[in-house]
Write a structure and sequence with these properties.
The protein has 207 residues and is of the alpha/beta class. The protein has eight helices and seven strands. Strands 1-7-6-2-3 form a five-stranded parallel β-sheet, sandwiched between helices. Strands 4-5 form a two-stranded antiparallel ribbon. Strand 6, helix 8 and strand 7 form a beta-alpha-beta unit. Helix 3 crosses helix 5.
Length: 207
């Protein structure tokens, strides 16, 4: 607690969306927070909020504006979701980026978020258990059917023994149609896990 207090003095917390100063331990400022709409349903994938408002802005900044620092406050939201939903897992796996895209971006935002989930659940973090074989076009440019076709065979398991018989939690930042998480689930199921569940920061209302 003392270290966090000192850290806030040296680098005051700012809003994950607009970068305004925020109260201690707050992810969004008072102006942005009302735009966050929590997801109450427990259906798959489990998500903290709907994609829109300040959440959408924060996720875009994390992914496309070289803001890996936002993974820490946004990861706290996923930790809160895990607590609220009493999530239990043995292994946490991030949705992987293709190596070329990882080099271009410099980090995998899903992996940064997944570390927070692993810490909250006490599960083992397996960043390399799942790999992306195909550098598919960005899903945002495709319709629903195209998204499922685009991503269907893009993933493969690299470390089957780490997943076999385990409760696996797959972490991503956003789910729109659920195509990416479904493709990850299909790949992971070849390793015969005990269960596979998806969790994201946000999802669109149609997911």
């Amino acid at each position: 607690m003392w270290l966090r207090f000192v850290g806030n003095l040296l680098s005051p917390p700012t809003c994950a969306s607009c970068d305004a100063r925020t109260p201690s331990l707050s992810v969004f400022c008072p102006a942005c927070a009302p735009t966050i709409e929590r997801v109450e349903s427990s259906s798959e994938p489990l998500a903290f909020a709907f994609f829109g408002g300040a959440m959408a802005v924060a996720i875009r900044k994390l992914k496309y504006e070289n803001r890996p620092d936002l993974a820490q406050p946004l990861g706290e939201l996923l930790r809160r979701l895990c607590r609220d939903a009493s999530i239990e897992a043995d292994v946490v796996v991030p949705v992987p980026l293709h190596p070329q895209r990882l080099v271009a971006r410099g980090y995998n935002q899903a992996a940064l978020l997944a570390r927070a989930v692993a810490k909250e659940t006490g599960a083992r973090f397996e960043a390399q258990a799942l790999v992306r074989l195909v550098d598919t076009p960005r899903q945002v440019t495709l319709d629903r059917e195209e998204r499922f076709r685009n991503i269907a065979h893009a993933f493969a398991v690299r470390k089957a023994k780490a997943l076999e018989g385990r409760r696996v939690l797959v972490v991503d930042d956003v789910s729109t149609t659920g195509a990416t998480l479904e493709a990850c689930r299909g790949a992971i199921e070849t390793a015969r896990p005990r269960s596979v569940r998806g969790i994201t920061l946000a999802r669109t209302p149609a997911t």
